[in-house]
Amino acid sequence: MNNYIVEPYLHIYEDRIYNPLTDRKIIRADSRYNILRDLAIGKQHTQTLKAEAAQQLKVDRWILPREEATDARFFLKYISLEANIAQERYRGSNFEVRQAIASSSGYHLPIGQKPSEPIQHLAGCEQTGSRILQHLHITAEGKAILCCQDYHSEYVVGDLRHQTIDEILRSDKMATMRRWVYGLDDAPKNFICRHCVFALSRL
User: Fold this and answer.
1) How far apart are the first and last CA of the chain?
2) Rounded to whole angstroms, how far apart are CA atoms 125 and 200?
3) pTM
4) Looking at per-residue confidence, does 114 or 156 come out higher?
5) Residue 195 has pLDDT above 80, yes or no
6) Residue by residue, what is the 3-state secondary structure of 150-192?
7) How far from the centroid of its chain's Cα atoms is residue 189's Cα?
8) Which helix (H) or strand (E) holds 131?
9) Which of 5, 58, 118, 124 sits in a 20 to 30 Å window from 21, CA-based?
């Protein structure tokens, strides 16, 4: 199994995992859910999987041979004002644009989709999946911000000019933001996720 990799763009949610390579998803009740989650976060490795489980993941293309990874085709829901612009941008690549919508989901611009009312009970993010746990958005100034929709850098969680990535990801400020995003603590009324079309709600 050393020649296999976990598909790196898995979207991991509380109740499901989505694979953009095959445009398929599995729910939490599926036996593969915990295996894929553990692989994605490094708790388990492909070379330690039982043969039966590994074979099932290979057949369903949740893990890929390394030599195939560079030829993999991914399906995108692209955010753009014009679908043809997005399609042209990725023409000839491994990416196929299936949908394009105008959106300022962080409520900064007068376009796109927005919730009709602020979201009261936050429960994660449809757009980012596990990114709040694993990713950083970096501005040109080296500031680490919570989200790509934070156009005005209102939710700064760190500064790479003075901190390492590990320090930022483990910081109290980042922990607070995560708890707000997932609704573990009550976020401020004007919190960006409360006004975002991609925010998930418990109700």
Assistant:
1) 42
2) 5
3) 0.50
4) 156
5) yes
6) CCCCCCEEEECCCCCHHHHHCCHHHHHHHHHHCCCCCCCCCCH
7) 24
8) helix 131-134
9) 124
